[in-house]
Design brief:
Length: 161
């Protein structure tokens, strides 16, 4: 099964990237230059009006994560938001944190990173994955899907990965 990657706004990708994605210059109260320090991409960015209060008044993300991006904030509902979303850099637009997500009973049970690495707290899934995917010489998507469905899991592969 394939699909488009959908970000759950867990914030992880923005919490450790502050050394690469940086605020280069402040142009006005809500106008900034954002810069990728590695490839030197630069853009003018404006803080999205609906996030300006949050941007001004809540710096807890940066206080708790010294490597967090200057522009990320945590909303009251716990989700993280890019306050310059329409202007974010290519590195941010292009980022997919996983190659596939695995579900059990409609709840996310794990994520696939790269080709056969898995991130999960589900010990049964860890075992199934180790024995049937990581030990397989060339596990195809069909093989993975069939193994997982035999144990009540489903998997959504992201096509652009
Ligand atoms: S891209 Fe992935 S790590 Fe980043 S916020 Fe979305 S779900 Fe989280
Ligand atoms: S610019 Fe936005 S998407 Fe990119 S790292 Fe910062 S908060 Fe995240």
């Amino acid at each position: 099964m394939g699909g488009n990657f959908e970000c759950t706004q867990c914030g992880l990708c923005c919490l450790g990237i502050g050394e690469i994605v940086r605020m280069d210059k402040q142009l006005s109260q809500y106008g900034f230059i954002v810069k990728n320090e590695v490839v030197r991409e630069m853009r003018q960015a404006l803080i999205t009006p609906e996030y300006r209060d949050l941007f001004d008044n809540d710096h807890s993300v940066q206080e708790q994560n010294t490597s967090a991006c200057f522009f990320v904030r945590r909303k009251p509902d716990g989700k993280y938001v890019c306050t310059i979303h329409p202007y974010r850099l290519f590195i941010c637009k292009d980022y997919h944190c996983c190659a596939a997500r695995i579900y059990k009973n409609g709840i996310e049970a794990g994520r696939v990173k790269g080709r056969v690495s898995i991130v999960t707290k589900d010990e049964e899934l860890q075992g199934i994955w180790r024995e049937n995917v990581q030990k397989h010489p060339d596990p195809s998507r069909d093989h993975i899907e069939s193994v997982l469905s035999g144990h009540g899991y489903s998997i959504l592969f992201y096509d652009s990965e």
